[in-house]
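Two records follow; treat each independently.
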Amino acid sequence: MSTSKACFRNLLLQNTVARQLSHSFSSGRIAQTYLFAGSESTGRLPAAKAFAALLQCAKPLALDGLAADACGSCESCLRIAADSHPDVTTVRPDGYEIRIDQVRALQDAAALKPGTGRWLIFILDPADRLNQSSANSLLKILEEAPSHVVFILIARETGAILPTVLSRSEIVRFASPAPSEIRATLAEKYPLSADNAAICCSLGEGRLGQALMLAESSLPEISHPGLKYSHTDYLNTIETTSRYWQEVFAGAASLEEAMRLAARPCHELYAPLLASRKEFCRSLLMTAALPASFPVIFADMLIDRLDSAVRAMQKSFEPLFAEAKKAYPAAVIKDLDGTISSMLNAWSGQQLEELLLCLLNWYSDTLKIACGADETLLLNLDRKEDIITLAAVDDIALLRARIELVEKSAGLLRRHVQPALVVENLITQIGGLEP
């Protein structure tokens, strides 16, 4: 449960967003639909809650250069911070998608009057998980909803939203903070050394939210063992991560609680996995002579390890399902099982996306140095010497080609091309340092 105040003054490195929404409120021009567009971990959900708190606040404030902000202390603000306000609803995917039955339930709720607040507020997080049917159903609601209803859609990019929904939305863009801004924020907010602030920024792949979580936890040990050890350690840490979540799921008191927990692996980081993945990517790019058989062997092992991890996590739910069968019809149990399976498989797919993002950030840093950029612009500042080495060997044209290759591979994964083939082809073409 969240305990921090839901207000714009707690929103880090998004001053433009705070001013835009604050002005929207103070001028009385409240749109019915907002689209909060930006990368993950840029503060989109905290901003949505801060705006909802301002809309419902009993005594809004004007301070810190903002036309208006939630007070953070009235009953309404406290309940929004605790995710317990009856007039503020967050709709999240049921499995991988936001389904049409969820949107229909939202439609019924939107037809009601606010219970305690001035507005009925619905936050869809993430709205780019609406499928075609649920997106079309949402459009109908947007066309018919009463004036006291506000929708906040959270998405990575505007292109993921139906044009007809987009045309009805006020777009609020969230910029990704520069690595130097993230490091400075971490050093200011926590008792961290410059080196540890750089490690948090690097392991979080330049995402402020993840860097903040890392700063609040014990940093994992980071070593430089080379490809022979690092690829094995990375695969083993996937298994360790699975065991960690199995223990979490096994501690659930009921199937309903376990279902809520099943969504956590996609949203909560496991620091040892971030460190082992980072070291594997470093070793892969720094290896001068990549064995010819390595790409196909590693790709198969990676997909097999991810599949095994998901099966093991699913198995940890079996005792809860056995108990639930006494209370629920078979059709309900089957649907719940499918929902949990979708959530855990989404985690598996996320691991492949994160691997490619890590490689992309290595190459992006290397290109910056090759083009003569200042080292403070680096995301992986803690691996500066490695990046300088890569930049001295790979020329600018090759680095740009490899960035394009990684981005293309990410696109293939999103189009559900066989993951093992995508990973194998990517590593084959990367092939370590050029001689």
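The next record belongs to a different protein.
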Amino acid sequence: MGGLATALALAKKGFTNISVFETASNLGFVGAGIQLAPNMARILDRLGCWKDIEAEAVDIKTTSIRQGSTDGELGNVDLRYIRETYGYPHMVGHRSSLAGSLYEGCKKEKAITVHFSTAALGVESWGPKPILKVQPRNGEAYTVEADILLAADGLKSVVRDQMLKDLNINAKVMDTEQAAYRIMLKREEMAHDPELLELIDADRVIRWIGEKRHIIAYPVSNKQIYNLSTTQVDKNFASAPSATYTTKGDKSVMLATFGDFCPMIHRMLSLVPDGEVCEWKLRVHSPLPTWVHGSVALVGDSCHPTLPHLAQGAAQAIEDAAVLGVVLSRCPDSSPESINKALQVYQKVRKERAEMLVELAAASGRALHLGDGAAKAERDKQFALLKEKKGTVPDKWADADVQKQIYGHDCMKVAEESFDELFASV
């Protein structure tokens, strides 16, 4: 998401020679559901690709937070105010729709060339112009010299690891001790069960919570698919640690993990075909002292990977892209010195905000996963006050004050208004 959005943001600002290198052979119908928050939608609209995404997304009107064991509602938050307040609704969709629309936007720009089936091997030189070595899947490795190298190569970023080594910085991927199942049920699979059909027909996000676990679910793809994403204690990866972030899951283990959740949850999880259970390891990275080295900068998960509890992972990568478009277009010349200063402005605009949201997502997860005790009792008091329209929402992504902090922020406007001052100060 970060790479395509960055390429599109730069093309829209008039850059004429943009190459995107992608390991996958194509985008395909991959991934699961994704929340499309207003701060993301605002940027996608400016990039010209929001309308297609919006056309098949679901406009979420409410969110319900429930006890996993009973399906009893702890809190319900009306989200209809979001469109009027922030100019865009809170929608949910399929990741392939987001990626596909960004790619279609890139294909319309003559400045952008996407090289599929091509992996980044590493940086051959950091300057004055960076040189990247890439490896086509069927071909000889070659090098590419560029004015600017933007590394949107994810949590397992090759460029980040090499950058940290070159700068003698000790920072590493951190184990969260959490994993996730990602499940997509088709409408026809749920149609026989009126209770399940009601779920897919509602404009609602539901989060079922329990000790050290939760499930979040919502309809996507014009309500033809019901998306469920879980978070639970990692056992599979912990018992067999490796660089792999996904593994084939065992359906019986998945069912046992949520064994004390309500019967409706069991019926949904039972619909997952044997052999199609997949589990993801949830990892993050310790905060980095810098995202920039010469004319090279990190983007998205390569510099601020996050837990999914605020639904801001892709949105923050897209904010990075938007700010890069602004600051690089404002760069007074193409010298390495000026490019580095513009990238330092990007870091100043983005770093504190992104890292704050990473920590807020982790804190929200801790609140959702409490077991019996004083802290859980206090949390449930907050949910009780919520029913009386008082207090804050323990599930932070549904809290109005947190939403204002996230959705009300216009990163492009901030970058435009602060560029001159920040550029002069770095």
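Discussion point: The longest helix spans residues 336-368. How would you locate this feature using only the token line?
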